[in-house]
Structure formats: C-alpha cells, structure tokens
Amino acid sequence: MVKKESQKKEVVTREYTINLHKRCHKTSFKKKAPKAVKQIREFASKAMGTKDVRLDVKLNKVLWSKGIRNIPHRLRIVISRRRNDDEDAKEEMYSFISVADDQATKGKGTLLVQDA
Q1: Which of 55, 53, 57, 56 is nearest to 91 (CA)?
Q2: d(CA 16, CA 4)
Q3: How far apart (Å, rounded) are the C-alpha atoms in residues 24 and 116?
Q4: Contact between 84 and 91 (Cβ < 8 Å)
Q5: Which pTM was predicted?
C-alpha cells in the first residue's frame, strides 16, 4: 500500500469535469467569471493537494469567451501535478490546469491521462 505522502509527491495528470453552474450559483453577474476562476483553483488545490495552482491561457479564454456574466455550465479540464524547478520555491510540486480537447461531459468521470 502506498502512503499518502508519497502519492502527493508523484507526478500525475488527470482529467475532470467541473460543474461551474452549481459553484457560481447565486453570484452577481459582474463577479461570475472571476468567481469561476477562483472555484477552479480551489478544486485543483483539493484534488491535487498543492497550494500553487497555475492556469493555462486557453482555459482563461474559454472561461471568459461568453463574457463576465455567461460562464460555461460544465467544463472538462486537465489537471497535472508537476515538479517545481524553481530553486527558492516554497513547495516542491505545483498544479497546472488546462482545457481538455474533448468537451463532451456525458458519462465521463475522472480519467487518468497517460503522459506521452
């Protein structure tokens, strides 16, 4: 059995579906897209166990594509835990979030992505 400590230090990539509609419900219009970004960061932090979370530019474009008010209801994202190459970094790992190529969400759960 693998300990939790060693699991959190492992380099891994997973694909998730995140329901932004329920996470940004009852949020005023002008705060929806910024709140969606914060919710994605929080989700990735919990899922990967890292405090340092970085967003891809394409993910930001997809979130803001319909404006500040109309965010996508569901989003398929790829979260990868990577080693931090900085010498003076506080944490040894960080999470990098990008948009999945296939945005179909029906019947798809969490997938482990094989790195090529």
Answers
A1: 53
A2: 21
A3: 35
A4: yes
A5: 0.89
- Residue 10 and residue 80 in contact, taking contact as beta carbons nearer than 8 Å: no
Q: Which stretches of 1-116 are assigned E, i.e. beta strand?
A: 12-19, 53-55, 74-83, 93-99, 111-112
- Residue 63 CB: number of other CB atoms within 10 A? 21
Q: pLDDT band at 4, cuts 50/70/90?
A: low
pLDDT in tens, 45-75: 999 999 999 999 999 999 999 999 999 999 9
Cα-flanking dihedrals φ and ψ of residue 97, to 5°? -110, 130
Long-range Cβ contact pairs of 36-43 (< 8 A, separation 24 or more): 36/63, 36/71, 37/63, 40/75, 40/77, 40/97, 41/97, 43/16, 43/18
User: Taking residues 29-39, what's their average pLDDT?
Assistant: 97
Residue 70: how many other CB atoms lie within 10 Å:
12
Strand partners, 18: 75
Give the rounded distance of the alpha carbon of 97 from its chain centre.
Answer: 4
